[in-house]
Amino acid sequence: MGNLAAQVIIYNNSSKTDKPFTYLIEDRMKDNIQEGMRVAVPFGVGNRIIQGIVVRIFEWKDKTKNLKCIADALDFEPILSKNMIELSLWMRENYLCSYLDAFHLVMPPGDFKEIRTVLNVNNVSLKNLTKEEEKIVGYINQKGKCYLDDVKKFMDHENANKIINNLKKKNIVYNTLEIETKINKKLEKYISLSSNQSKDDILKDISSRGKKQIEVVNYLYKKKGAFIKNLMEDTKASYQTIKALADKGLIKVTETEVFRNVIKSDISPYKRFKLTPEQLKCFNTILDDINKNGSFLIHGVTGSGKTEIYLQIIEEMIKAGKDTIVLVPEISLTPQTIERFVGRFGSNVAVLHSKLSYGERFDEWRKIKEGKVKIAIGARSAVFAPFNNLGLIIIDEEHETSYKSGMNPKYSAYEVARKRCDMEGSSLILGTATPSVETYNSVLNGEIKLFVLKKRINNKKMPVMDIIDMREELNNGNNSIFSRKLYKEIEENLKEGKQTILFLNRRGYSTFVSCRKCGYVIKCKSCDITMTYHIQENKLKCHYCGKEMIAPKICPKCGSNYIKYFGIGTQKVEEQVKKYFPKASVERMDTDTVTKKGSHERIFGRMKRGETDILIGTQMISKGLDFPNVTLVGIIAADTSLNLPDYRSSERTFQLLTQVAGRAGRGDFEGRVIVQTYNPEHFSIQMAKDYNYEGFFDREILLRKEFEFPPFTNILSIIVYGKEKEQVINVSKDIHSEIIKNLELIYDYNLIRNIYGPNPALIEKIKDNYRWQILFKCSDEDLFQLKDIIRRVCINNRDDKKYRGVKFNIDINPSSIL
Ligand code: ADP
Ligand code: ZN
Ligand code: ZN
């Protein structure tokens, strides 16, 4: 047999090293190196040893070329499966990112240089060991827990891997992964009794007046030991009491690691429902085809029982020994959502979301990788959950823009999910009340199988939507933020003791500040964006970069005192509500009020217990919330999303109105929705009013076709950005002409006709960076060619001298072109 070589992606963030490097695998290492393992390799002229990951192993026949050899294997088992390697390579190709960016997503969370393999000895009899095996077992036992690299050093033996492997086969040694971070271990004070004496003996040392101390000893005697927190909670003992016992030497205090538990332990079981005929039909049909690698869309109004269908299908997957990934938008990853999955499946669930620390995320990742759970629920990046036997991916609220990543690789979780399903033969279920135009188009093309759930569970009615023309309010002399109708309905609701939700998609107090004399509008100095007034701090803030300034009393330009605050944000709504309804208890939920950990849950809890009469909020309250006592939803301004200069603005508006309306009337009482707008005739508002998705789609798809927008074309956006305006303009012109030159070489004039720009981006400056944009529209086939050219022009040259100081942001079918 010939020699083996490996392609290795090395951990170095320069464009020059953004390619696979080939290394020879020496014979002695053959058994230790597999695809998906991390290795140490010599690199550069100095042969500095650096880390990398093996993405391919192949036979090396070329004897003429001198290759460097892999220095060592850093893993005992591959940390990436073959499929995950393939997925990363596909992402790099598809989303025009670097190898490292692509691999970063499938690797364990945290800094993968710090992942180490830990070896442990099982509690079994140790007979018939070879000398070397004995030596290793002895070493591990002596250390208690020990790292693979330490064993290797200790053995100073090239066959360490082989010996450990044998021990593993004999079920004597087992291995797991660990990550070293500052927050790695969570230590807490653990209290136990100091000696094994009988209880009475211990109690002899306590005077009979020390009642609490006696109680603590009894407690510890019964429990054998407890974390100080639990001890103090359960016995109501003070810190002094515990200290007194410790001073007497009766108890000992140690620091013990608590296993991070992301999921609360006191979640009550979530009752399983008997499916309705509508649900059952959907369930049965999907189940019949579940092993056929298909795609399904459950188009069901909010509250139609989609989640219950997911839960019961997952149950079947578990019976079949298969794993499921459930994606939900980050803002829907509420305790309520998690509780339903954990309440049904208990410790079979791993939860992944951005609020977890690296350590916590690593623990969840490991549970999945080691097969300890069957279900992973999380936001976008949970699509990379490293299951080995994936049977199903569910994407709830499929239309949400947060499924498209804004960072490299700028992947779409839907596309990645589809790719994973194709590689692993799994099925994909999408669920939503308002399918994205692209998805619904795929349904009509026969690529996705459709199920419609028309009714809410228990035939609860969808709330009635009332559209209020705010121009008319103004004509009738009402210039408050509430229409007369909304005001009356809130009043009524308060009287009846029902809850109200008021929705506005903008936080802050007023959205722009301008001078009525000279027309000056205050914009952020670093961004081309108006600043928002925040009343509590009396400051103007930029919602892009966070810059703040004291709210001015006179115009910074002309010095007049005609400075005025325009546009309304949630703070103003709160102020007005309190003014008009002084007796109501009012709460606001937006990014400004939920910054502290747990504040989300607290607001949520007060709402659930009925302590809040009126909840005001942004998108954050538009989904996932299920409060039976909410009977009125007011949408303060439906126009905020409609007026955005983006081809998706009608779609967004339709989705938002439908979602927000879905918060009303979920309990035993019918719901009402009041929509305030300056565009009452707009079709997305009219169709939303009638819950007519098909009607909306039919209109929208014609517009998309007419103006050549997705799904009829792909949009590729390049934004050139940097601190020097001149340079940004020059570079964008430069790459524009380079791309055209390349296209001319292959005579693709059709593509050339569909290039727009370079133009200043709609937001010309963000965080002190000037931004110029080039847009392309092209078919799937042309996209392939275009990507190839862009890779050559922008990516392979990104460290070129002439591009110094600028960066490229390349996005394929971005969620917004702003
Ligand atoms: P969706 O996910 O479509 O919004 P859910 O699955 O959350 O709908 O269901 C809405 C409500 O109806 C939930 O409170 C759920 O517990 C309940 N529910 C779902 N299916 C059934 C059923 N078959 N019988 C009774 N109640 C159900
Ligand atoms: Zn700014
Ligand atoms: Zn002025």
From TrEMBL:
Its ancestry begins with:
Bacteria, Bacillati, Bacillota, Tissierellia, Tissierellales
Helicase C-terminal domain location is 550-717
Q: Which PANTHER family match?
A: PRIMOSOMAL PROTEIN N (PTHR30580)
EC code: 5.6.2.4
Question: What's one Pfam family the UniProt record gives for this protein?
Answer: PriA_3primeBD
PROSITE patterns xrefs: HELICASE_ATP_BIND_1, HELICASE_CTER
Does the record carry Transferase as a key word? no
Q: Which Gene3D superfamilies match?
A: P-loop containing nucleotide triphosphate hydrolases, PriA, 3(prime) DNA-binding domain
- For this protein, the parts annotated as crossing the membrane are none
Gene Ontology MF terms in the entry: 3'-5' DNA helicase activity; ATP binding; ATP hydrolysis activity; DNA binding; zinc ion binding
- One GO biological process term: double-strand break repair
| Chain's gene name | priA
| Cofactor binding notes | Binds 2 zinc ions per subunit.
Per the entry, what this protein does is:
Initiates the restart of stalled replication forks, which reloads the replicative helicase on sites other than the origin of replication. Recognizes and binds to abandoned replication forks and remodels them to uncover a helicase loading site. Promotes assembly of the primosome at these replication forks.
Which species does the entry assign this protein to? Acidilutibacter cellobiosedens
| Protein name, as recorded | Replication restart protein PriA
Q: Where is the Helicase ATP-binding domain?
A: 287-453
